[in-house]
TrEMBL record:
Keywords: Cytoplasm, Metal-binding, Methyltransferase, S-adenosyl-L-methionine, Transferase, Zinc, Zinc-finger
Biological processes annotated in GO: methylation; negative regulation of gene expression, epigenetic; regulation of cell differentiation
PANTHER family linked: HISTONE-LYSINE N-TRIMETHYLTRANSFERASE SMYD5, SET AND MYND DOMAIN-CONTAINING PROTEIN 5
A Pfam cross-reference name: SET
Name of the protein described by the UniProt record: Protein-lysine N-trimethyltransferase SMYD5
One GO cellular component, as annotated: cytoplasm
The EC number(s) this enzyme carries: 2.1.1.359, 2.1.1.372
Provenance organism: Chroicocephalus maculipennis (Brown-hooded gull)
Enzyme class of the recorded protein, top EC level: transferase
Gene this protein is translated from: Smyd5
One Gene Ontology molecular-function label: histone H4K20 trimethyltransferase activity
Domain SET: 5-334
Amino acid sequence: AAVAAEARFISSAKGKGLFATKNIRKGEIVFVERPVVSSQFLWNALYNYRACDHCLRALETAEENAQRLLGKSSLVLPHPEQCSIRKDLHQQCPRCQVTYCSAECKQAALEQYHQVLCLGPSRDDPTHPLNKLQEAWRNMHYPPETSSIMLMARMVATVKQAKDKEWWIKAFSQFCNKTANEEEEIVHKLLGDKFKGQLELLRLLFTEALYDEYLSRWFTPEGFRSLFALVGTNGQGIGTSSLSQWVHACDALDLPMLQREELDAFIDQLYKDIEKESGEFLNCEGSGLYVLQSCCNHSCIPNAETSFPENNFLLHLTALEDIEAGEEICISYLDCCQRERSRHSRNKILRENYLFTCSCPKCLAQADDADVTSDEEEEGEGETDDAELEDEMTDV
């Protein structure tokens, strides 16, 4: 699909923004984008959320997915033909056995970064430098996860493997960079109060596992912190689920009214039961770096939203309103509940997680509102304090 938007520099304070290059209708897809690099979260993978090691496509059938989330192996889903998972296409790396959804993904991973990161027979060896790095990360960054050290590892491996190393370094350098003070804040947000010692430990393990002369700057304390902040600032959450794919397919079925009601009731109950068993962790989750999407600025009244309807890392940006040529395209970094809160509360979350104060039309219109959070907001305050450091995990 043709891209109906382009990135433009706005100002040194605001950086880049994304602007419509033609009139876009509400509901239209502005663009579909693949990440320059992506990676599944480490706890997510450890807890058997099985995803393609390259594109994050969910690998379980919808029925297996539901059985695992329910803790009930006897569950049978109706309309199994609506499940899009093709197990006959799945392939493994012959050396380390990580699984891919297709021969294409296996090949793409091998060509971009997997030669460097393949653990071969050391996959379960806790003393292997890459395993030590991943274990250290898991011990610092518990669910709900917002980032992964393996995203940075794949960046290094990509440059290491590349024939044209400068091209990739340039590709990574177009992501938003922060000042040293802002980088400190982002690292602090990702690693918590003990972060100075933790960051140094991660850097040493990262160096042991991946050091490369050509990228020596990335391994210095400053360079590593910048890399860390780049991923923290620009990483976009990715969520995939074969169950939600199946649900969408079932929603589209043309059924007699009684059957439709039965199916809807079954699905509603299924989600209620899963929530009791697995809480909010329904998806295979990871994050990726997207060149165009990362240029989208925030608005509390966004005119576009991101989603992953193809059950893999392909990001769809869809217009929520009619957008005119030349108009800025904005997404919201806050979830629906956070967007409904007072200007003061919204900006508290944005300041803590994204280091800026919002001046969208909604915030400007509410500029004279008192800078206090209302009582009912106070009660909900604790819940959003550690709002995702990444764009809201998009429902798939």
